[in-house]
Every structure is written in C-alpha cells, then in structure tokens.
C-alpha cells in the first residue's frame, strides 16, 4: 500500500476535512471574475495593482512599508540577509524545524553564507531561556508563529513580549515567520498589528489559511524594504507581472480573514474527535490555530489501508500524506478551512467510529 | 516635458506600433477562458500542467529536459552557477550589455560570487575572435541572440557554429540567452532545435514576442536540469503554483509562434519608414528579428514634444520611453507584435511625414 494510493483515495473523496478544497485553476478564475479586463498589470513592482495591495497589508500589519514577493522562501532569506549585512554578522538563530532549515535546500547558507544557530529541541518551542542562552552574537532571531512542524504550537503572548524586549535590549533583530499569522489571531485575541509590533520584520503568506495561489508579503521599515527590493531583483523575483498572485491574495484575504475564528473553533472540535480515538493524540492537544498534527501510535503501514477504507466507505478524506513519527507510529497535518463546514456531521461521526475501531483492531493484532 | 508625459501620451493613443497591446489582466483571463475550472494546479514543480508544458518545450528546443522558472533572471544565474560549479571555476564571459550585467543588481556576483569577463565593445556583437582571445579559463560563455541592448543584432549562423565548435573544443560550456529565440528563427531560417543544438543550455522567455504574463524555460541535459531544480528552490522560485504563468505561456506560444515571420517582415517595413526620416537611423538598419532600435540625431528634449504632438494628432503611438544615446541624440526600442497590423496605413504615413518634418525643423533650429 503506497502513499500514492492514499493520496489517490483522498483525491477521490467527495468531502475533505481540510483546507479550502482541491487546488484547481478555479481559484484564479474566481479571483479574476469581478475585475475589469482593462485593469493594468504591475510592471516590475510598480503600478496600482501591486502598490495598493502592499499599502493595504502595510496597514493591516502596522508597519511602515511592505513588498509583495513570489514566495516566502525568497522573502525570508532576504530579510535575514539584510539584518546580517547591517550588523556585519552572518549569524542568525531559529528553530531546528524552521522552513529555512528543512525546506529550502539550504538557500540561506548557499546563497547568503549565513550560519544559523538552532534553538531549542526540535519537538519544543523556542523559549525566552533559549534566547538568553545563545552565547554567540547574532544579527537576527526568527520566530515562527505558529511553529508549523510541531503541529502549530504557540508560546503565550507574555513570553513573546519578553523575547521581543530582550532582543531589543541586546540589539538583536526579531523576524516573524508569519506564514500563518492571520490564523493565530483568534487564539491570541490580538490584532495583526499588535503581534507585528513585537517584530522588526514580518513575512506573511497568502496561500495557507488565506488560500490564494501563491505569494508573500515582507513588511518592516522603509529602508529595510527598499533594500529588500534590490535583493528581490537579484533573486529573480522582481517579475514583470506578479498580478496573478496579487489579485488572488487580495480576493481570498478579503473573503477568508473574517473566517479565521471559525476555522480555529472547528479545529478544536475536530481535534477533540481525534483525541477520543484509540491511540490517537493531536499536537497540540487543543489547537491554537486552524492547524494541528494527528499522531497515531500504530505504524504507517497499518494506518494507510485503514484510512483508505474509511475514505471509500464514507466519502470523507482526512489527509493524502501520512508520515512516520519518532515513536514508531505515524502522523499527518490538518489545516481547517472552508471545507470543514461542508462535511455531513453523520458522515464525520462514522469516520471517527471507524477510525477508533480500526485502530483498536490494529493495536490488538500486533 | 518629462518622460512621464511621453508615457502618458503614448498610453492614450488608440493604436500602437509596438507589442501586443497594453499589458492588462485581459491576457490572463483569455488564457484561462478555454480551460476547465477543475484543472489541477501544479504543486512545487509537479503535476501535469507544468510537466506537460516542460515536455512540449523540451521537444521544441530539442533538448533532454526543461524546467519552468518564474523568471529568466533566476534561470540564467542558476545555469551559470551550475556550469561554474562543475568546472570549479567561478568565471564566465558575456557581453557588456548582458542582462545579468545591467539589469539584475549584480545578482550573479552577490549571490553566486561569479566573476564575469566582458567580451567585445558594448556597441558590437561578440565575435569568434573575442572568444578566442579571452586569455583566462572560463566555465561558460553566454551568448544573447539577438543582442537586445544594441537593437537586437545577430551574428551570422556560420559564426555561431564556429563559436560553438571552439567552445566544445576548449571545454567551455555555451549558454544561450534566448529571451527572444523564437523571434530570430525567420531570419536564420532555422528551427529552434537547430539553433539550440549549438548550445549546452538554453533559456527562453514567454513574455517577449510570445506575449505571456511572465515565466521562462531553462533547457539542457537531464542532470543539469535536476541540479537547477535544487537552485530554483534555493532562490525561492519553486512556487507551490506557477500555473498562471504556464497557462498563459502555453496559450500565447500556440497563438503567436506562427506569427514570428510576419512580425519580422513588419519590423523590416517599419524600420524602412524610420530610415527615410531626417536624422533617423535604425539599429540594425535592416532588422534581423521583430525588434530594432530607432536612433535620432536630435536631442531627447526636442524629440519628446515632437512625439507627443504626433501621438495626439494621429492617435498612433511609437514609444513611451525615450533614452539619450552616446552621440547627443536619443533612441527608443521597438518590438513589433500583433498591434502593428491594426494601425491604419494612412495614419502611419502621417506619423512618418510629421516625424520627418519635425526633425528637419528641430535640426535647423539648432
């Protein structure tokens, strides 16, 4: 039973517990449908279509300026590079499961010769204590809120404030990997501006909870963003036209930002159902955003056929991608979006019933 | 009279002698209109929508493999980086007005620490003699066909063959900046494959003569492209979805590739009309693609108001961007596309009459 089969079975389900539905070109068509054909393209970062959106997000984040990038990978490497250049120290600190460390083919090291110090155990959040004990001078600390690879965990707000104050005192720039910033506002009960004021630079994504096509915003002070535009060109990201990403970012930002509280509530409900199943524990146990990880104590090769049979009998899909965890079991990631409210509630009850029974049977057969 | 006024006047013209019309979101809407809403997005370089297009262009270029990139800036830096890494020499050679040298904020040097040797005088083409006389060992020679910044000039085919043979003999990789490759095929009377077989790696663009939204293809052998995908991720170019650029590249590739001969013929006709005007000479005198530069011996501050008055009285625009040249005059670039055939011929005659008379008056008033 290969992962490909799980993905195929997942794609054939009528209802999915996660996200905003399949990624098809419908999303782009819908974003364009209300716009006039004569709307002018941006041209290498200029033009109303990009400048207006940058201005809007600048205000949402409460920063001086913001620049639209094709990707967060590009935006964040550039942010760290600028802070390193300013301090004359090519050293930063971040979590061992930071996106830059595990998903970017070492671009930060290969293109920018920046050395990262990995803070905290990979299964834990970065705490104030970790920052205080770094021991070496660094240009920048990157915090990812929520910490995606450990289920989207969050420090409490007071600790964030303390880390921010410490960094300012020590002359360490604080950068926010806010790929899922909008998704955590309901938990913190803060505005984006209130969170962002703790940070010197901020990256936000428009295709996670917002559900756009692709694209990112980097925000901070004016001179920082001016410098980032030079690096954006160097990276090959200053495209003649970024508008396909901008119009979809804007469209779904307007549509889904008000739903973040609902996604969060649904995630807590969904996690509660998982946690009642045999040998299942979500991380965090109670989600702090729309996302969480589902850890199952049974091994992947037993869980995969079970999930496939559940998908086939209920028409409801949970994930297309099951990964092994460190304790001999397996896990998957869930991000709640528009799809959750479309699932028939009786169907979902059947899913958890079958999952619970199947996992009981699996564990007793071992 | 500022350049901004010239651009504003140009944008108000009903007919334009250049390009495929204003860059508006219409182009993207048109590209999507025939596609089914359920068509799946690419996902980080995988999926039929990107793989099929890569396969198609691989065959057009007669190479082993091809990868779609968001920009040529990214694709070409990466190509040179790979060739440099393979040879263990961080030195390449290209023209002084190469895109990498003048339009990319020194990305090649800043991100890849690659040192370029500038070949030939900036107003001339790179000749075989220049290559033979480099004197230092280089990993790669980049040739841009046509050489855009000098009006889109081309060496003859025999000289290309000789440069290619020399590079192979000396173990120098030959890279083609083919941003306008499709535009030069009518002049050479060769297929893209015939041109590309002279080169080890090839970049082509989809928003020059093809008129897509943005995007580029890098082609070459399998192992080269596999390596390029790693660098694409490092640069932040491995977007979750590149399909907005891919569908428009494909749409306009199909639509406009057959028109390249017509664009070329029109460019020759248009250049002929310019060359009959007082104090005007095109570069090249006879175009070898759809593009050329128009050099005017009168200074920019006299030509700008003349062009604005011509645009206003005829409704026909030629350029929105006039630049000073080295000999006290000014010049602009023209790329012929779909728009040319829409211009009323009598209107165009009036344009050249007024231009000729205006420039005569301007030169006698000095």
UniProtKB/TrEMBL annotation, chains A, B:
Keywords: Pyridoxal phosphate. GO terms for molecular function: L-allo-threonine aldolase activity. Residues 40-295 form the Aromatic amino acid beta-eliminating lyase/threonine aldolase domain. GO terms for biological process: glycine biosynthetic process; L-threonine catabolic process. The keyword Lipid metabolism does not apply. GO terms for cellular component: cytosol. It comes from the Bacteria. Belongs to the threonine aldolase family. This is Low specificity L-threonine aldolase. It comes from Brevibacillus fluminis.
């Amino acid at each position: 039973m290969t992962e490909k089969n799980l993905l195929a079975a997942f794609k054939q389900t009528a209802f999915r517990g996660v996200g905003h539905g399949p990624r098809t070109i419908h999303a782009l068509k819908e974003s364009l449908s209300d716009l006039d054909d004569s709307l002018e393209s941006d041209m290498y970062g200029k033009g109303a279509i990009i400048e207006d959106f940058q201005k809007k997000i600048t205000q949402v984040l409460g920063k001086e300026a913001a620049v639209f990038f094709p990707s967060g990978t590009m935006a964040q490497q550039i942010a760290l590079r600028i802070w390193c250049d300013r301090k004359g120290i090519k050293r930063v600190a971040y979590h061992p499961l930071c996106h830059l460390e595990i998903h970017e083919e070492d671009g930060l090291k290969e293109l920018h010769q920046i050395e990262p110090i990995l803070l905290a155990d990979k299964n834990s959040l970065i705490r104030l204590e970790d920052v205080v004990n770094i021991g070496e001078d660094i240009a920048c600390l990157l915090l990812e809120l929520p910490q995606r690879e450990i289920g989207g965990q969050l420090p409490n707000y007071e600790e964030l404030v303390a880390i921010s104050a410490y960094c300012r005192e020590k002359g360490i720039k604080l950068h926010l990997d806010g790929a899922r910033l909008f998704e955590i506002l309901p938990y913190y009960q803060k505005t984006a501006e209130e969170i962002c004021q703790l940070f010197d630079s901020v990256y936000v994504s428009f295709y996670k909870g917002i559900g756009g096509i692709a694209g990112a915003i980097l925000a901070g002070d004016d001179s920082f963003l001016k410098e980032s535009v030079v690096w954006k060109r160097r990276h090959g990201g200053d495209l003649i036209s970024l508008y396909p990403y901008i119009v979809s970012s804007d469209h779904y930002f307007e549509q889904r930002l008000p739903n973040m509280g609902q996604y969060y509530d649904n995630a807590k409900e969904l996690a509660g159902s998982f946690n009642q199943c045999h040998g299942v524990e979500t991380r965090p146990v109670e989600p702090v955003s729309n996302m969480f990880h589902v850890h199952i104590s049974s091994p992947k090769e037993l869980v995969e056929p079970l999930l496939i049979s559940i998908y086939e009998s209920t028409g409801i899909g949970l994930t297309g991608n099951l990964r092994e965890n460190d304790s001999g079991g397996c896990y998957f990631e869930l991000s709640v979006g528009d799809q959750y409210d479309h699932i028939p509630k009786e169907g979902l009850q059947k899913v958890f019933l079958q999952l619970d029974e199947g996992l009981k049977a699996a564990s007793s057969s071992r």
